[in-house]
Amino acid sequence: MYKVFVNDNPIIITSSLKNENNYPIYLFENITFEEILHVIKDTDINGIQLYSTDLKKDWISFTQHLTVIAAAGGLVTNAKNELLFIYRNGVWDLPKGKIEKGETIETAAIREVEEECGIFNLKLGKKLVTTYHIYHQNGLNLKETHWFLMTSDYNEALIPQLEEGITEVCFKNEVAIQKALQNTYANIKIVYDTYKEL
Q1: What is the pLDDT of residue 41?
Q2: Partner of 135 at 20 to 30 A CA spacing, among 72, 85, 96, 142?
Q3: Which among 169, 167, 69 has a CA at the least distance from the CA of 113?
């Protein structure tokens, strides 16, 4: 299954006929990419489910309409089991960014977290999940973000990367996390839920 967000509304491409969200269902091969985008942008629809008989082939077909931007980021915990959040554009988020040419996914994830948060002593843990969202910037792009669990014992002041629009960086306890999750992106909730399932 692939879950791709457009403005926090999911396009679910799946080989399962289950429809737990009551989204409209379309047979992947019977709908064009333009029709998919038209349906998902309908204000009365919170999501769309595309039934696929060949998930691998249909995913390749879907992504051919988009410029895929590979990115990596981290969900960082400290000794108190708090999680590291950034505040950007009025929304709580997790640190992430584009993978540079010649860089591994893991190296990019650590570099982006260090740059955006001014944190060091990061230890890379297991891969959590890959999230997807579509955005407009010089055409239609699909951001494919690879998320890793990380830990750090760094105790110095955290420094937000202001040139990236980040105005705050902080570790949050469970109460503060729940509040932050009310003002975040759907993909960040997926990363958090995956972490909680571990």
Answers
A1: 85
A2: 85
A3: 169
| Rounded distance between C-alpha atoms, residue 120 and residue 153, angstroms | 8
What pLDDT is recorded for position 136?
Answer: 92
Nearest Cα neighbor of 23 from 53, 1, 45 is 45
Q: Residues 55, 94: contact at Cβ < 8 Å?
A: no
Residue that is written with structure tokens 């982006």 in the block: 112
Query: How far apart (Å, rounded) are the C-alpha atoms in residues 64 and 6?
Result: 17
Nearest Cα neighbor of 133 from 119, 147, 122, 121 is 147
- 18 compared with 3, residue with greater pLDDT: 3
Residue 22 CB contacts under 8 Å (≥ 6 apart), including other chains: none
What residues form DSSP beta bridges with 98?
71
- Nearest Cα to 118, choosing from 82, 183, 60, 163? 163
Question: Counting runs of H as helices and runs of E as strands, what totals does the chain give?
Answer: 5, 11
Q: Which domains does the chain have, with CATH numbers?
A: 2-63 (no CATH), 67-197 (3.90.79.10)
Mean pLDDT of 107-123: 98
Q: What is the pTM of this model?
A: 0.94
